[in-house]
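FW: tagging you since you asked about this chain on Friday. Here's the raw sequence from the shared folder, copied in full. Didn't touch anything.
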Amino acid sequence: MQAKIKTVLVIYKVEHDQARGMAWSVADWLVARGLTVLVRENSPEALPVAVPAGTVVSAPPELALVLGGDGTMLSAARQRVAEGVPLFGINLGRVGFMTSAGVEDWQEALAEILDTGFTVARRILVDVTVIRGAATVFSTTAVNDAVISRGAMARLAAFEVTLGERDVCTLRADGVVVSTPTGSTAYCVSAGGPLIHPDLDVLCVVPICPFLSDFKPVVVPASDPVRLSLSAPETNMYLTCDGQELFPLDDNDTVVVAKANRTLMLAKRAGDSYFARLRLKGFINRP
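HL: got it, structure written out here
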């Protein structure tokens, strides 16, 4: 468990009136319990506002609360607005699989954390790069997945799939998903991939509508980069990372997905259960 919490960062969804209003309600609630609070919009350009006004914060916050949904959690992690601080999500969206409380129970959840502390769950991230010839033309970090998919033209793509230094196969498909365990409940499972426990140090490669291929979704060690080299002409393909960043691909580009050096830290309440959350969000049936 963490040491006593003194300072909390509250991050709220961009241009969202409910999230903005709730952020200040949460801040007032925390201040009334003797904590210092920093409030900021989930934007790289936003500056945090200290509460109470005029407070000088000399040390990093011990906890960051993210008000929004899974998209806001992903965005906050990708933008590194709370670098090195565990994130705790309060869901204002629909599914909210990465979040741990909601509009109705946030006070109960935060009171428990203030009383008993929290544990930190570390989730792997991936660095995603696009190599064109000998140059790197795009790079980013993703929490959930890197997806190569076709554009407006309904034309199959061909991929040379490599794991580490080992050639795997040539795959013809509409696209490919490379997912982290955190992202396995997103596009991965929708495309026919497995649910993966978030404590595992693996990646999952899932073909999207493969053609004349028995390539099944495969779970591979995260220690070996996954390389996907396009090898079909005029396929009009795009790379999407976490559903938030889009990059157009050329016919002979290579997409490399490799485990990142940094990790995502999530704050977990005592008794948090991955399988209970799967049941709550409808991924598995209740016993």
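FW: DSSP finds five helices and 18 strands in the chain.
HL: agreed, and The mean pLDDT is 91.
FW: great, closing this out.
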